[in-house]
Amino acid sequence: xxxxxxxxxxxxxxxxxxxxxxxxxxxxxxxxxxxxxxxxxxxxxxxxxxxxxxxxxxxxxxxxxxxxxxxxxxxxxxxxxxxxxxxxxxxxxxxxxxxxxxxxxxxxxxxxxxxxxxxxxxxxxxxxxxxxxxxxxxxxxxxxxxxxxxxxxxxxxxxxxxxxxxxxxxxxxxxxxxxxxxxxxxxxxxxxxxxxxxxxxxxxxxxxxxxxxxxxxxxxxxxxxxxxxx
Length: 230
Known about the structure:
By secondary structure, this protein is an alpha+beta fold. 28% of the residues lie in helices and 32% in strands.
């Protein structure tokens, strides 16, 4: 009975983790380029284990009309230079800082093939291949990279990812396609996540009730044992 309640406690913690993951997905359903997390299960040494994985499937694109907005309609990530090192993102809501450099919404530098991309006035256009054209002259090309092992990407704040693998596992995405004046939405489906949340909550309730039942039964057994005459 004791081992049974331990298993139920593990199940309760798993459902809590799943609930928190779903809640975080829903909270970011309107975050540009956000990728939902999914809890999966596997057996190890006779015990059921859970692991969180990121679903990198693309989100829908939406037209904004902003000349500094870009969205990836292919695999890959924009490469960003930050005070804390190189980061990667799918959020293409860019702007130009006071120095005329293309930056993210966090103010960090968007990298091109030649480094930081300087945009100095005039009419600007960004091609499907990432070419940044100002006054009909190409000034640079937005760098889009891909990873041999995307599962080694770790989420950080500000829609950023850091890569935990080796640099040789990072390469320029050969077939990257950029949609100018579009942004990629989150790949979270709020309706599906709501259904999952309800299912998870019900499962959590069932486990909690089972734990309470075993606890009550154990208490009765202890009390009954105490009343048995010698």
